[in-house]
Specification:
Elements: H1 7-15, E1 19-23, E2 28-33, H2 38-44, H3 55-58, E3 72-75, E4 91-96, H4 97-100, E5 104-107, E6 117-120, E7 129-133, H5 158-179, H6 188-205, H7 211-228, H8 230-240
Antiparallel strand pairs: 1-5, 2-4, 3-6, 4-7, 5-6
């Protein structure tokens, strides 16, 4: 007799191919993707339905008729040697796990001692991802590269360190505005301008730059905050005005 199962049961069965135990990763995890996905990710974030079938790489018994689990894979490490090697020069995206707000699991394709490879079955919003390296898509991965590209050791990771610093400063400004009851009286756009200007001046004053370089750096920080932290500031403003 043929056993019928529900769609949700089927999904759960499929997930067992890749889902291990639940895990709480670090604040930043890394996702690699073919450059052909760059424009979509920049607009919609990471969508489980758009990913290439991971079983092609991970399961030698994979068959073309098998249906893949819609999932997003990442590395719970910012070291190049830990990242998943697709054998191509992929884009590298950093995911802010706190902002993403999804449940992560160990990747069951790897043995229990390898906790760095993780997977989620939920979409990740665009404001939780940042492109920090633009790949060529070519077959140029250096398989012998043993360097550890941590957030503070490589130029292409400096933005993440700076972003974390910006977010900390922005949160300090928001907390101060809340204590002074400014959130009740200041329109959102004015609040964003004020915070962007205050944080930009703080960072510029610490940069040891002079003249035009100081002004350019300050204006770049202001524009970056207004473009990339609008949602973060808006959420705080809406939540704490109640």
């Amino acid at each position: 007799m043929k056993i019928k199962i529900t769609e949700s049961q089927y999904v759960r069965l499929q997930e067992q191919k890749v889902k291990g135990d639940e895990i709480t990763p670090g604040k930043y995890v890394v996702h690699s993707s073919n450059p052909s996905n760059r424009d979509n990710i920049s607009v919609t974030g990471l969508q489980t339905s758009l990913g290439e079938c991971y079983l092609i790489y991970a399961d030698s018994n994979y068959g073309e008729d098998e249906e893949c689990v819609p999932a997003i894979f990442a590395t719970n490490s910012t070291k190049k040697k830990d990242m998943f090697d697709s054998t191509y020069d992929d884009d590298i995206w950093v995911i802010d796990t706190e902002r993403a707000g999804v449940q992560w699991y160990k990747d069951a394709h790897f043995d229990g001692s390898d906790y760095k490879h993780i997977v989620t079955f939920e979409n990740i919003p665009v404001d939780a991802v940042r492109l920090i390296y633009k790949g060529t898509g070519g077959d140029t991965w250096n398989h012998d590269d043993k360097t550890e590209l941590t957030l503070t050791e490589s130029n292409k990771y400096r933005l993440i360190r700076r972003e974390a610093d910006m977010e900390h400063r922005i949160d300090n400004q928001l907390t101060m505005a809340k204590h002074q009851n400014d959130l009740y009286f200041v329109p959102l756009d004015h609040l964003i301008l004020h915070i962007a200007d205050s944080v930009a001046v703080e960072m510029a004053n610490e940069s040891n730059l002079d003249g035009d370089e100081y002004i350019i750096f300050r204006n770049q920080i202001k524009q970056y905050i207004r473009s990339n932290f609008y949602g973060h500031i808006k959420e705080f403003w809406e939540t704490n005005r109640k």
